[in-house]
Amino acid sequence: MTIRDTPGATSGAATTTLDTLMPGPLSLAGHRLGTPQRAGALTMVPISGPAYPGIVPPRRGLKLARVDGYGRVELHNGAADGVAIVPLHIGYIQDAAQNHALCRSAFIAAGQSLMFEDAACVQASQGGYLTERDQWFFVLPVELRARALQRRGVHDFSKLWDDIAALNRGYGLPARGHLEQILSRKRPVLTQFQSRLELQPGQLGALFFVDGRLAGLELAPDPGYFADVWTALVCFAYGVAAWHAEQRHAEAGPPSEARPFPATSLPELRAALDRDRAARIAQVAGWLADVPTGPVEVTEEERYLGLRLSTVTGAHLAGQVVTDGDRAVYASLFAPWPGDTAQ
Predict the structure, then answer these.
(1) Cα separation of 341 and 343, whole Å?
(2) ARG and Rhodanese-Phosphatase-superfamily-associated domain: which residues (predicted)?
(3) 0.90 cut: is pTM over it?
């Protein structure tokens, strides 16, 4: 997979391979990177490529069946056919039950339910429930993802409370194990990233950078699946860290005043836009070249027919992937983040 100049851009922008970001022999053959988009501190690079059929999209097929006490969450695949791949670190804000997040992905066959015994409660005490019309799902902020992955299989509903409290404290919020202090109360701010970044036709993945640092690589089986998790990723998994970065920028002082493109005609404006686009592509290529690399460990967790779910752990990248042979079908990989207590 490469990032290249867009047609009409000035020559000379770097071409950078992404093969080193994927663990082991996994293939991203046929996948392409699109033009980077930036919204404040958050940069998103679209990924397009061949779709993998037969996977149930999470919003339309995967349902929260029940929360059976603390740390026990049951999901149901209501589709008539097709296997559901549970998005890694998905969580639910729901009425009349404690808010939980999952520490791992899983397969759920059509018409089947699965009880996750190792879910993490992300609300340290009762209260703060939303009404049914406000129910929605999120993906854990990148600052919490390494700890959540590390504690998959651990049956302790309070296992993320200290980490959530530390995250809240770092954001100037009360140091409590209540993730809704960020996800719910700051939701109007975080959803701005969804409106400022545009999901592209045919997009089935993305690279996310925060302040020029790789935050994550997300890949879905097909565009429909990715569209279902788009809001959860851009607003919560990566938007939270971007919002925090913008807070730091604001404290450091106002940014220098942006200057308009030096153009006096439409052709000159188009040329200026092409130069700006090429500069952004070259900048992202430079960020990719600076991403640390190194060995990773790939541990198979479960199988469904020809699909394999594996956990990836390494110093520069961690997460989970679903593969068919050497083809990557689904991937949710994130970089270690400053302040993450799991490092």
Answers:
(1) 5
(2) 32-334
(3) no
